[in-house]
Design a protein that fits this description.
This protein is mainly alpha-helical. The protein has one domain. 78% of the residues lie in helices and 0% in strands. It contains 4 helices and no strands. Helix 1 packs antiparallel against helix 2, helix 2 crosses helix 3 and helix 2 packs across helix 4. The protein is globular.
């Protein structure tokens, strides 16, 4: 299997998993009060998704980053619509932080690899 097809498949699967997890009804949701651990989970998930996206589409980094921000906003809107989840703008900010961290990690990785 072509590595490009493999990374694109992994990225697509990860997006599907995050979407399902974000929209599943959860009986033990924390209250919609600012929760640092929840925000850290958002940032980590979007950092990983963004890194996968950067690997899958290395020539389209800006599009991947913008797409991830739009995806994060769409998830929050979908959570508002389902009624059993909470859509929060703070989550979108945490998602954006994750995308930015992924960009920084990618940049540092490329710099380190170039020095090696």
């Amino acid at each position: 299997m072509n590595s490009s097809i493999f990374t694109k498949s992994i990225f697509a699967c990860a997006l599907n998993v995050v979407t399902v997890l974000a929209l599943l009804p959860t009986e033990f949701l924390s209250s919609p009060v600012f929760n640092w651990w929840d925000k850290a989970q958002h940032a980590l998930a979007f950092a990983v998704l963004s890194l996968l996206g950067f690997m899958a589409f290395p020539q389209r980094l800006l599009q991947v980053a913008l797409g991830m921000v739009i995806y994060g906003g769409a998830i929050e809107l979908a959570q508002l619509a389902v009624g059993w989840r909470f859509g929060e703008w703070e989550d979108v900010m945490a998602d954006i932080t994750g995308v930015m961290v992924a960009g920084l990690v990618r940049s540092l990785w490329r710099k380190w690899r170039g020095a090696a």
